[in-house]
């Protein structure tokens, strides 16, 4: 992710899509130096490149070249000086595209969200998850899903984090339309022991294969189909109590399955979808949850027993 570093303090700063710098307190980065203007300059992402636009009274030095009320392209290693003082000098150390990130409110730690899904604090014991769907980050905790707003805070593993929204808007593909055309195909073996799951999208077909978590997907998909056939409204289709699901899975698998095991399976489903090309990542929210309930979050389902 694009980063500049202050050459005096060595502090690293992640660049936002529209990153303003100046003496005013409303800037993305405040530079509290007298000869720096209130809104001195903007560094911005455009056409897969980073640029700097000077708005100031006194101008800006980029690689020791004076620029005033103009826009210049930034390069790896560019040195930018906004005022006379050495503390206003920064170096470009990374020019990758912008990404949303997390800032720890308990330490100086920052964490770039480079993937579309995270289980926190770790994969083995996921207590919350972060998922990017349609350029919106969602937080799932205790069976409920929340949309993350810029600067929203949350707690995990006794640490408080702030979410900073900094994702690019993708408008070249209508992913909502693409998902709506997809069919989930479940092929069940005669002995009911093996369940294969595929996603068909016109000419594209994605195969999740035969996985240990597929019977859980099948159980939820059957409930969704039952409610569709019963003509329930879409918002009411497929919901099951978590206790009902764990009881059914325990009976089918002849072992105890509790909510922890369900959480682990959901995490593995999301991981597999993220690896599935070309559009598996668009289905990471195939399991929808609300307090005490869970459902299969798609209404185009075919089951072959």
Folded structure, characterized:
This protein has helices at residues 175-180, 214-229, 242-253, 259-275; strands spanning 3-6, 12-14, 18-22, 29-30, 41-46, 49-54, 60-62, 65-67, 71-73, 79-81, 89-94, 101-104, 110-112, 117-120, 128-133, 136-141, 144-147, 153-156, 159-164, 183-188, 195-201, 204-210, 240-241, 287-290, 293-296, 301-304. It has 305 residues and is α+β, with helices and mostly antiparallel strands. The chain has 3 domains: 3-94, Tumour Suppressor Smad4 (Sandwich); 101-164, no CATH class; 175-304, no CATH class. The protein has a 6-stranded antiparallel β-sheet with strand order 2-1-11-10-7-8, with no helix packed on it. A 5-stranded mixed β-sheet has the order 4-3-5-6-9, with no helix packed on it. It has a 4-stranded antiparallel β-sheet with strand order 13-12-19-18, with no helix packed on it. The chain is elongated and about 75 Å long. The two termini are 48 Å apart. The mean pLDDT is 92.
Keywords:
alpha+beta, 17% helix, elongated, Tumour Suppressor Smad4, 3 domains, 305 residues, six-stranded antiparallel β-sheet
What's the N-to-C terminus distance? Answer: 48 Å
User: How many domains is the backbone divided into?
Assistant: 3
Strand elements, count: 26
The helix/strand series, from N terminus to C terminus, equals EEEEEEEEEEEEEEEEEEEHEEEHEHHEEE
In terms of DSSP E residues, the strand content is: 35-45%
Tell me the radius of gyration. 24 Å
Helix segment tally: 4
The main sheet comes to:
6 strands, antiparallel
* pLDDT < 50 stretches: none
Roughly what percent helix? 10-25%
Outline: elongated
Sheet/helix structural class: alpha+beta
Mean pLDDT: 92
Strands of the widest sheet, in order across it, are 2-1-11-10-7-8
């Amino acid at each position: 992710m694009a980063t500049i570093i202050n050459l005096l303090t060595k502090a690293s700063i992640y660049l936002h899509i529209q990153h303003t710098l100046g003496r005013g307190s409303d800037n993305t980065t405040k530079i509290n130096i007298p000869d720096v203007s209130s809104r001195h300059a903007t560094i911005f992402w455009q056409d897969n490149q980073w640029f700097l636009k000077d708005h100031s009274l006194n101008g800006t030095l980029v690689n020791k070249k004076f620029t005033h009320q103009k826009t210049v392209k930034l390069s790896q290693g560019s040195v930018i000086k906004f005022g006379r003082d050495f503390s206003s000098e920064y170096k470009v150390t990374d020019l990758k595209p912008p990404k949303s990130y997390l800032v720890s409110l308990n330490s100086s730690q920052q964490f770039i969200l480079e993937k579309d899904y995270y289980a926190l604090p770790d994969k083995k014991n996921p207590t919350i998850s972060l998922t990017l769907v349609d350029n919106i980050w969602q937080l799932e905790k205790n069976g409920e899903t929340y949309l993350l707003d810029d600067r929203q805070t949350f707690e995990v593993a006794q640490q408080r984090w702030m979410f900073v929204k900094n994702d690019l808007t993708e408008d070249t593909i209508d992913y909502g339309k693409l998902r709506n055309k997809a069919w989930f195909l479940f092929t069940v073996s005669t002995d009911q022991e093996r369940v294969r799951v595929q996603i068909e999208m016109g000419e594209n077909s994605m195969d999740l294969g035969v996985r240990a978590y597929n019977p859980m997907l099948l159980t939820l998909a059957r409930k969704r189909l039952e409610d569709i056939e019963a003509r329930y409204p879409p918002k009411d289709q497929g919901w099951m109590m978590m206790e009902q699901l764990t009881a059914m899975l325990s009976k089918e698998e002849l072992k105890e399955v509790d909510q922890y095991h369900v959480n682990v399976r959901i995490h593995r489903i999301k991981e597999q979808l993220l690896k599935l090309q070309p559009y598996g990542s668009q289905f990471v929210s195939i399991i929808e949850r609300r307090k005490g309930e869970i459902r299969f979050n798609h209404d185009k389902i075919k089951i072959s027993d």
